């Protein structure tokens, strides 16, 4: 560091210490004030009245008496006062003194921290002058650095090309060993030369970069082996394409392969997944419920609110309307409505999904005409699916 | 630098106290002496003798301090000059 820098540093440090000292003085003054006040408060109630010189404006005084010696108005800040006795006021002063003490401690600590710094800089200047102590500095030239970076990049690229050169042929397994050997030998020699060069320069950064390149250029071992296809019913398969190797050392791509569904459909009668249900009973693909409402959806919503009577429609017809497959019936039959106390909420009524049924039931009760009324003597609640099943057995 | 500043301060205080002392000594016996309450403009009546004795005490202590500084300071100044 130059002389100018030293002196500048010294200046700043001295300024900091001075500021702390000023603050310290101020707080010391506060402390002495409070101490004097405390002693005064203690002596105040000793006499009924004190003789004082009463200030008269800023420069004049009049002799007078201080009469209410025990009633003190204490300022709490923000122009709020509290009336206290002399003793209580003395207690307040005590507490304030505590706060002042803590402030003083903080400031003293600060000074303790700052002053060694100043000492250190003065010592440093002395040592530089006397003993010839020198700062260890590394030269940094922007241009040189940028030049070096360019060269380094080129070297890295060259190395990569050499590495990739022998690998670009068909596959990892197809590579002929005879071809490999001379290449790797050459590579070895070149690398040795590079390392020697690096050592000569004493540039460890380059060494680290070299190591990184070596790691990157290692072949991805298991790319080809990852091809597997599940021929199970409905699962898509993962396969790595052959391109992965050509692109570079660390890229793996996946593609979904199409699975033949046509044979699967007729074969399975078993329902093993929701997908099977849809396959058997639905012709159209189920639409995602997360997608925004289309026209049909809106209609359905309206229907729920308006309540259409569907007793006249047979299950087959209704299903036709909805576009469901004509296969075996998943649920046949109309909704059976029970006469129930409308106050008593059934399980169905409670769940919002079954609002249609509930509303249906309510409506049915009012009409009471062409309605399949369940056996009302049966007090037990039955789920609608069970009811449907029962109805299934009854008519047949 | 700090020492010089302190020195000046002490000298100032000492002079004040000296003046005060002399003034108090010239007072009559029945004269009223008022002491200012710190940080405010109110003056409380005080006993003349106690005040006088107090003032003397402080003056003595200040003078002592000054002397100590005087004895310590020259050696420090010499060191600075050498370096």
Structure commentary:
The complex is a heterodimer of chains A (396) and B (83). Chain A is mainly α. Chain A is 54% helix and 9% strand. Chain A is built from 13 helices and 6 strands. In chain A, helix 1 packs antiparallel against helix 2 (86-131). Chain A is flat, with a radius of gyration of 48 Å. Chain B has 83 residues and is mainly alpha-helical. Helix content of chain B is 71%, strand content 10%. Chain B has helices at 2-25, 48-82, and strands spanning 33-36, 43-46. Chain B has a two-stranded antiparallel ribbon with strand order 1-2. In chain B, strand 1 and strand 2 (43-46) form a beta hairpin. Chain B is elongated. Chain A binds chain B through residues 32-33, 36-37, 40, 50-55, 61, 63, 66, and chain B through 32, 34, 37-39, 41-45. Strand 1 (50-56) of chain A pairs antiparallel with strand 2 (43-46) of chain B.
Features:
heterodimer; A: 396 residues; mainly alpha; two-stranded antiparallel ribbon; 13 helices; B: 83 residues; 2 helices
Helix content of chain A: 40-55%
Q: Give, in spatial order, the strands making up the sheet with the most strands of chain A.
A: 1-2
Largest sheet of chain B: 2 strands, antiparallel
Shape of chain A from CA axes? Answer: flat
Give the strand order, joined by hyphens, for the main sheet of chain B.
1-2
**Main sheet overview of chain A:** 2 strands, antiparallel
- Proportion in β-strands of chain B: 5-15%
Rg from Cα of chain B:
17 Å
β-strand amount of chain A:
5-15%
SSE class of chain B:
mainly alpha
Q: Could you give the order of the helices and strands of chain B?
A: HEEH
Strand/helix succession of chain A: HEEEEHHHHEHEHHHHHHH
Count of helical segments of chain B?
A: 2
How large is the count of helical segments of chain A?
A: 13
Number of strands of chain B: 2
Q: How many strand units of chain A?
A: 6
Query: Ends of chain B: how far apart?
Result: 15 Å
Question: What integer is the average pLDDT of chain A?
Answer: 76
